[in-house]
Amino acid sequence: MPITTPPDLTRRQLWTAGGALALAGTLPGRGHAASATSVPASLRLTAEPARALIAGDDQPATAVWSYSGSVPGPVLRVRQGARFRATVENRLDEGTTVHWHGIRLPNAMDGVPGLTQPSIKSGGSFAYEFTPPDAGTFWYHPHDNGLVQQGRGLAGALIVEEREPPRVDRELLWVIQDWRLTRGTQIAPGFGGRMEAAMGGRLGNTVTVNGGVPDALNVRAGERVRLRIINAATARIMALRFEGHRPVVIAFDGQPCEPHEPAGGRLLLGPAMRADVILDMVSEPRRRYAVIDDFYGRSAYELVALAYDGSAPLRGHPLDAPVRLPPNPLPEPDLATAERHELALQGGMMGGRGMMGMMGMRGAAWAINGMSMTGRGDTGMPPLLTLARGRTCVLSLRNETAWWHPMHMHGHSFRVLTRNGTAVAGAEWGDTVLVEPRQTVEVAFVADNPGDWMLHCHVMDHEVSGLMGVLRVA
C-alpha cells in the first residue's frame, strides 16, 4: 500500500537528480557517461564519514557515510570472468561488511555478518575476492546494520562488462537513492520506526541519481543510449515513465532477457532491483521530456528530464543494430525433477494476521512461514529450507500481507515462472523479485552454490524486522 512522501521540503529538494560518471577507485563526477575503465586487479574501498551536496549545490552539505569519500561509491567495472579483489577498510564507528549484490560468488565472500564472515570492526579491514561468472549490472552495499548504513549513503555500482556489448552511442548509469532530509538538509534521525517497519518502510523526501543535481540530461536526436538503472533506495519502489519515448528492457538484475517494452510503458523497480534499458532518442532538437516516477500516485515527481540539444540529428532513423545481450552461463532449471517449496510472507499492518503480536519479540513485525529473523540475521535460527546441491528448486512465494516485498536471494539467480498462476512471458531471470500484496510468485533455480544463503525482503525496514531467513544448499 503506497505511503505519501512527507511534504517537508520544497519541490526542488524533492526533485533531486544527477548524472553518472565514475572511474574505478575515483570519485563520481557530474557528467552522465559511464566510464569504460575496468578496475585494477586489486583495489581498496573505505567505508567512512563524508559530506555531500545531496540537496543541491546551493544547499548545505549533508553528513553521509560513504565509500572512499563519495556517495554513491566509486563505479567499479570488471570484465566477465576476470578475478576481482577489493580490500574494504572500515573507518566508521561501528562494524560493517560489503555484500556484492547479485553476484554468484563463493559463500565466504557474500558479506553477511555472523553467517558468512565476521563483521569488519571499526579500524579493521577485509579482503573480498571472487571471479564474477555473469556480465551485467550489479551493485554493492553493507549487510551489517544495513537499514542505517545504506540509508546514510553506503552503496555503489559494480558493472561486469560483456565480451560482446550491444552497439550504442553512449552508456549511462543511474544509481538512484532516496533520502529523508531535515530542513537543514541533514539526514533525519529515527531509523527503524515501529510503524514504518510494519508498513512500507522509511520513505524519503529527496530522490537523487548519483548524488548530483542537474536540471536535465542532455541528449542528441538520433542517438541510442544504454541506460543502466539501479534502485539503491532502502524502501522506495519506483515506476518510471519515459515521456515521448519507448524504452526497451534488455536485462533485469544483470541477467539478459528477451528485449521488450515494459508493460504499460512503466518500468517497475523495487529496492535492489536493476534494469538495463535501450533508449532511442527519436524526438527533435530542443525538445524536453520528463522521466516520471509515479508509483506512489499523487506523490509522483519528475526524476529527471531528457533535454534535446540543438545539434542536428545524429541519424535520421533509429540505429539498425541488434540489442539482445549474450546469455550468461546460468544453469537451466529442470522443472520435471524439481523439489517444490512454499514460503508464506506474513505480518505487517493490515495483514491477514495483523502484526502477529510480534512487535515485542526481538522487534519482529514480519515472518516467513512463521519464523522471524531480525537484526543482522545472525540469530542462530535453523534454515527455512535445506536444498540438495545441484537439484532444481521451485519456490512459491505467497505474499499474505498488504504490502509489496522485493524478495532477494543471495548466491543464485532464479527464473521467474508465474505470477498468480499465469506464466511469465519470456525467460525472465533475476536475483530480486517484486511480489505484490496477496500475490503468489513462483521462481526456479538450480541450487548449485553450496553454503548458507540469505533470502530476505529488500525493503530494509522489513528485513531487519523479521522478513528474512536462510536457505541452506548442502
Describe the structure.
The radius of gyration is 21 Å and the shape is globular. Strands 20, 21, 24, 26, 27, 28 and 30 form a 7-stranded mixed sheet that branches. It has a 6-stranded mixed sheet with strand order 10-9-12-17-14-15, with no helix packed on it. It has a 5-stranded mixed sheet with strand order 11-19-18-13-16, with no helix packed on it. By secondary structure, the chain is mainly beta. The protein is built from 4 helices and 33 strands. Strand 14 and strand 15 form a beta hairpin. The N terminus is likely disordered. The two termini are 38 Å apart. The relative contact order is 0.15.
How do the strands and helices of this protein lay out in sequence?
Layout: H1 11-14, E1 43-52, E2 62-67, E3 76-79, E4 84-90, E5 99-101, E6 125-130, E7 136-141, H2 146-151, E8 156-161, E9 170-179, H3 194-197, E10 206-209, E11 217-219, E12 224-231, E13 238-242, E14 248-252, E15 255-260, E16 266-269, E17 274-280, E18 288-293, E19 301-308, E20 339-347, E21 366-368, E22 373-374, E23 385-387, E24 392-399, E25 405-409, E26 414-419, E27 422-423, E28 429-430, E29 432-435, E30 440-446, E31 451-457, H4 460-464, E32 465-466, E33 468-473
Parallel strand pairs: 1-4, 3-8, 9-12, 11-19, 20-24, 23-33
Antiparallel strand pairs: 1-2, 4-6, 5-7, 7-8, 9-10, 12-17, 13-16, 13-18, 14-15, 14-17, 18-19, 20-21, 22-32, 24-30, 25-29, 25-31, 26-27, 26-28, 26-30, 31-33
Sequence stretches where pLDDT stays below 50 over 5 or more residues? 1-37, 356-360
Summed over residues and divided by their number, the pLDDT gives a mean of: 89
How many DSSP H or I helices? 4
Percent strand: 35-45%
Total number of strands: 33
N→C terminal distance: 38 Å
Radius of gyration: 21 Å
Q: Which structural class fits the helix and strand makeup?
A: mainly beta
Helical content stands at under 10%
What coarse outline follows from CA principal-axis ratios?
globular
